Structure prediction request, 251 residues.
Amino acid sequence: MNFFENRKLGVFSSFLFLLIAISMTGCVDLSGGRASEKRPIPKTAQSVFPKSTSQKSVKTAKTVKVSKSQPYHGEVHTMLGGLGLFSTGMRTLSGTVVEECNIPAPSDMWYNAGDVTRSIVAYYQKHKQHRPIILVGHSLGANEQIKVARNLDKLGISVDLLVTVDAVSQTIVPPNVKHAMNFYKPGFVPMFSGLKLRAVNPEQTRIDNINVTTIKGIQVNHFTIDKDPVVQAMIMDEVKKVSSNANKAKG
Prediction:
């Protein structure tokens, strides 16, 4: 009996030590407070690209009021990974999109990928004037956004921009995606190591694989990469390009 009790105590002690070590290194925010805090995006971070660059749901609270004269046009869907504790940069991004672009930007958990697909398809089939579709996800959310793109591909629906942040699997991008922007950080632990994306058809899909370790001033890990101000700024810059170009084409 003592043997088993000592063994249980040893396992518990090891787990407690590991949890303390992780929290001290900043990989895990146990408070859950600062992670969801919106940080301003520095203007100096706009249009930053590294030289090595290759070719149940949570909704945004703000209401989008569309006017004919607004400069942006489209829909942005962000997706959180895991339990939603560490992917709060996706919520921040959705809030920024609504605030600065005045276009819909719902934020969902990764396991709601089916709902996201149905929502996009429903709007697409209901409206003759199709708006740009932008998918953004972190970790498991990134994996599932690639699946959403595949689902849309089966229905002949194009994705104007796919942004993946440290996707850990599902790295093959379907041909209906026009541009895929992938932020990743290589690591030694497979489940927390970002991977490069590949296109089914490189002639139809532009792939930008961005290793964040090559960008000056970025010090992140798998749990913080989505909240980095520079990464957020780069994503927003591309979102604005896609949605503003679409508005010009719309006339």
